[in-house]
Structures are given as C-alpha cells and as structure tokens.
Specification:
heterodimer; A: mainly beta; five-stranded antiparallel sheet; globular; B: four-stranded antiparallel sheet
Chain lengths: ~110, ~110
Amino acid sequence: QKEVEQDPGPLSVPEGAIVSLNCTYSNSAFQYFMWYRQYSRKGPELLMYTYSSGNKEDGRFTAQVDKSSKYISLFIRDSQPSDSATYLCAMSAVDSGYALNFGKGTSLLVTP
Amino acid sequence: NAGVTQTPKFRVLKTGQSMTLLCAQDMNHEYMYWYRQDPGMGLRLIHYSVGEGTTAKGEVPDGYNVSRLKKQNFLLGLESAAPSQTSVYFCASTHPGNQPQHFGDGTRLSIL
C-alpha cells in the first residue's frame, strides 16, 4: 500500500462548480503538504504549499490539512475550463531529505 | 531565470545502451531530486542529493546511478537501459526547510 492515496478520477464538472480533491496518507512524519497541477506533457506546477495542519487560501484555491485524520484537501471555487488538468497531492518529511511522496493524481475536466 | 532545465527532452534508446540525463538549476538550490512518472503509478523518487558531492537512494533506485559534482547540476545515468525504464523523468530542486520543490518539464525516454 502506497503511503499516499488519491482517487485518480476522472472527475468531470461544469464550469463554475466547486471542485473538491483529497488525499489520505499513512506516514505521521509528513509535515509539508503540497498540491501540484500538471498539464499534459509538462512538469508539475506548484499550486498550494502548507506546513503542518490548517487552512490556506489563494484566490480560488483553498488547501486544508488535517494531520489528526491524515487527510488533505484542495478546493477550487468557480472552476474554469483552464483548470482542466491532473492534480497531484504531495507531502514530505525532514528525515527523508524533503523528498516528495506523491499521490497518483486526479484527472479533472471542467466543461464549458 | 530558467529555473530547472532538463536535457534532452526526448530520447529513444535500444535495450542495453547507456545514457545520461542532465538537470541544471539556476536558483542556487542545495537539494535536487530525480523522479520517474509512469501511468497509474504517479511520481516516484529515484535518487536525491542534499548537497554537492552527496547522493542518496529513493524508492526505485535500481538500474540508475547519479552524480552531483557541481551544485547546479544533477546527472542521472542509465548504465544498461531496459524496457522497464521507459518513462518520463522529472528533476526537481529546493532549498532545505520550509520551501516547495520546483520541477523541470521532463525527459521522455523510450527504450526499445
């Protein structure tokens, strides 16, 4: 079993919908939590970065981390067709050189 | 400011051939990483380096070697390529501590 679990989808929503993406993990040593967005044939692009538990908001994006439940979420408000991409959750710990442990990614399609 | 640059972008090899993938970063980052991305598997860590002259194994290191002779460069070598090494390879870098990783756009490698 992978340390990080993420539903691969695909997830299809209409433009303007609120999108909820989530990951669960098993390693309690993880302290740093990230969401990356990846377009086809491109490298992962950082969307949100959170240290430890709590919420973080940036424009239409909100990231939540619940370390007690080992659960992280990304919410996208007023979704746009340009948000169509694969969303990767990732997390890291100090004792492994901050190397990232990724979920498998969720494919999102926002239809006009 | 180029960020993380990977060379080459595409390559086709025959089984048994060797090659080196180059990663260069211009952000003066201490830590560098090599990941591979396969369908249904997500990104997995191959090797990483926490400084010039140091390397460490990740989740899937077999069949690969790495070198970090200069702080800005991290090389990934395949000594005897196998079809199972067909993948997209991503390099990333970061400062240690509370900083996210920055990714290159990947090298697509096919081994026949």
